[in-house]
Specification:
Number of strands: 28
Largest sheet: 8 strands, antiparallel
CATH architecture of the largest domain: 3-Layer(aba) Sandwich
CATH topology of the largest domain: Rossmann fold
Shape: elongated
Strand content: 25-35%
Number of domains: 4
Length: 639
């Protein structure tokens, strides 16, 4: 009995020390990805009796393998997958052999599920690319190989499946391998193996098959059990992104993180970024006790010799091996949101433990994942991939993705929906001379002529609106200010960029020295019109609430702003209504303590060319009427 216990402990200890291989299967629809994984699990005796019994029943009922067991049903768990015989979502399966533990991601083959494949491949060490022997290398094969290369997977197995359908022909296998080699040589994949298999029949999956005597390599299982991936990790560049500062009591201050790359040892001199202050490591602490050194992917707590102010999001490195500390960089981006990219919007960027805001400076190009052809595009749609320049609000501590996956990858998050908008792989920092917003000679010529560097179209895309002036005219007490302020609030709540100008605010500052004579009234309105024009030129909607009694002056205002941008709203209220609304003002006019009040001792020209005529009694409806008008004119969307 004692010996049995020792054997169990020895087995568990051995099992715990097995290393882990993460791999993905990819390829075209119906190339046999799910079948291959199911076969691996079946032939390596990794299925429980109840799983096997259910698999045999399901194969007869809904299988696609004729009289044979349909091993794909082990992974195609969604109803739609089983009905159509395809993979839609990522399916993860876990199993182990005497030599290694495995996590396998079965990823979709359809182009519309590119983002699903990218998610599955992001943590993989090895990719099995399946090719149907009856079809050879096709578009999807190239697409998935490109994505594998983009995501930095260094080990690829080209599994030429369904060899039983081509009578296990060496010629067919060799032809497919040569075609694939000519394509993969264009990409950065250092280790490529070629294995002829039949996932359905089990040839060369777990055991070498006698049906391919001309094949001298290993079986699929033997290869993935022995492929060396330990050196894929970066053990040279210490990157320790601080996740948490531990202060259980006043005498202890530890910095908790997962070692992203490199090795950290007790006694090491380290530097904290961005402060560049240095200290020495006094201890490396884990739940099981202290360590002499830590390496990826261990999660540890370190203590330092000196009291350095380090917080979450900062990075600990070796002083002679710094990461980039920059706000600008170029990256390859995979767009993952169903909502198209807004190239002028802001996003949150999540990079290691650091989160800040980011914007796109430019879109270099989009890559057609089927042909690898590059093209210029204004934005990215779902599943599209391309190269961009990004600027962040505060500096990030990063390396090129090819050099260090952990510090070279990031996620963009939509600040409104909180959805993952994109994932990115950093190519390199970008120097100031290469920034898209660097002032060029052509830009300087525009500036000298007083021409802005931002086009009207760019303003429209940024603000999702057109610059326009909503000019509300009417007598004192007609309700035009109430309409103006309520309209401003409704537009603001819908996301508009809007500025309100009214008589009181302008008279208290910009036109403080002017009186209420006809000439000074006209000058006051001219200033307002010039200000509105400047704001409209920059894509901003202005709401102007002014009596503007003279019809000729209103026409001059329209000329200044631009007749296509000037929209006249008349608040139709007679003097009686206005007197009841503002009795004190009109009493002063009748007592001659004030003069030049339109409608009393000064004429008011009722507009005959107003775009909208409003009644003060219908103020809520007036706002809706104007919003509908703005939508119809393409100035601002109501929805």
């Amino acid at each position: 009995m004692v010996d049995e216990k020792l054997d169990i402990h020895e087995f568990l200890n051995r099992d715990e020390k097995k290393n882990l291989l993460r791999l993905i299967t990819c390829g075209s629809v119906d190339d046999g990805k799910s079948t291959l994984i199911g076969r691996l699990m079946f032939d390596s005796k990794m299925l429980y009796d109840d799983q096997l019994s259910a698999l045999e029943k399901d194969s007869k009922r809904i299988g696609h393998a004729g009289e044979d067991i349909d091993y794909a049903l082990l992974l195609d768990g969604l109803k739609a997958e089983r009905e159509q015989g395809i993979t839609i979502d990522i399916a993860y399966r876990y199993f182990s052999t005497n030599k290694r533990k495995f996590i396998i991601a079965d990823t979709p083959g359809h182009e519309q599920y590119t983002r699903n494949m990218v998610t599955g491949a992001s943590t993989a060490n090895l990719a099995i690319v399946l090719v149907d022997a009856t079809k050879g290398v096709i578009t999807q094969t190239r697409r998935h190989t490109f994505l594998v290369s983009l995501l930095g997977i260094k080990h690829v197995v080209l599994a030429v499946n369904k060899m039983d359908l081509v009578q296990y022909s060496q010629k067919v296998f060799s032809s497919i391998c040569e075609e694939y080699k000519s394509f993969v040589n264009q990409l950065d994949i250092p280790d490529v193996e070629f294995i002829p298999i039949s996932a359905l029949k089990g040839d060369n999956v777990v055991e070498k098959s006698e049906t391919t005597p001309w094949y001298q390599g290993k079986s699929m299982l033997a290869h993935i059990e022995t492929v060396h991936v330990g050196s894929d990790r970066n053990f040279d560049d210490l990157r320790y992104p601080v996740q948490y500062v531990s202060r259980p009591d006043r005498d202890f201050r530890g910095f908790c993180a997962r070692v992203a790359s490199g090795i950290i040892s007790k006694g090491d001199t380290i530097m904290a970024l961005p402060s560049k202050k240095t200290s020495k490591v006094t201890s490396i602490i884990t739940y099981d006790g202290e360590l002499e050194r830590a390496f990826p992917p261990q999660s540890v707590t370190i203590t330092l010799e000196d009291e350095i102010d380090i917080s979450r999001g900062e990075m600990i490195v070796h002083p002679d091996n710094l990461s980039h500390v920059e706000r600008q960089f170029e990256a390859m981006l995979v767009w993952m949101d169903e909502k198209p990219m807004n190239p002028h919007g802001q996003f949150y960027i999540k990079h290691n433990t650091n989160t800040t805001k980011a914007r796109f400076d430019s879109i270099r190009y989009k890559v057609d994942v089927n042909t690898l052809v590059k093209s210029e595009v204004p934005h990215f749609e779902l599943n599209e991939i391309g190269r961009v320049v990004i600027t962040t609000v505060k500096p990030l501590f990063f390396d090129a993705y090819k050099k260090n996956k952990s510090t070279g990858s990031f996620v963009l998050i939509d600040p409104v929906t909180n959805n993952t908008s994109a994932v990115g792989m950093i190519i390199d920092k970008i120097h100031a001379d290469g920034l898209p917003h660097k002032i060029t000679t052509a830009d300087k010529e525009k500036i000298n002529k007083g021409v802005g560097l931002i086009s009207e179209q760019e303003y429209q895309e940024q603000y999702n609106q057109k610059g326009a002036s909503i000019w509300i005219t009417g007598l004192h007490g007609s309700g035009k200010n109430e309409l103006a302020y309520s309209l401003e609030k409704r537009l603001f709540e819908k996301g508009a960029t809007v500025v309100l100008l009214d008589g009181s605010s302008v008279r208290s500052g910009l036109s403080k020295e002017l009186d209420f004579s006809p000439a000074d009234r006209a000058e006051n309105l001219r200033r307002v019109a010039e200000m509105s024009k400047i704001l409209n030129d920059q894509g901003i909607i202005t709401i102007c609430s002014f009596i503007s009694a003279d019809d000729m002056v209103r026409k001059q205002i329209a000329d200044i702003i631009g007749k296509d941008r000037f929209h006249l709203i008349y608040m139709d209220a007679d003097v009686t209504f206005c007197k009841n609304n503002k009795p004190e003002l009109y009493e002063r006019a009748e007592q001659h303590t004030i003069s030049n009040l339109p409608g009393v001792d000064c004429a008011y020209d009722i507009p005959t060319d107003a775009d909208i005529v409003c009644k003060p009694q219908e103020n809520e409806d007036n706002g809706s009427l104007i919003l509908t008008y703005l939508a119809d004119k393409g100035i601002f969307p109501v929805g």
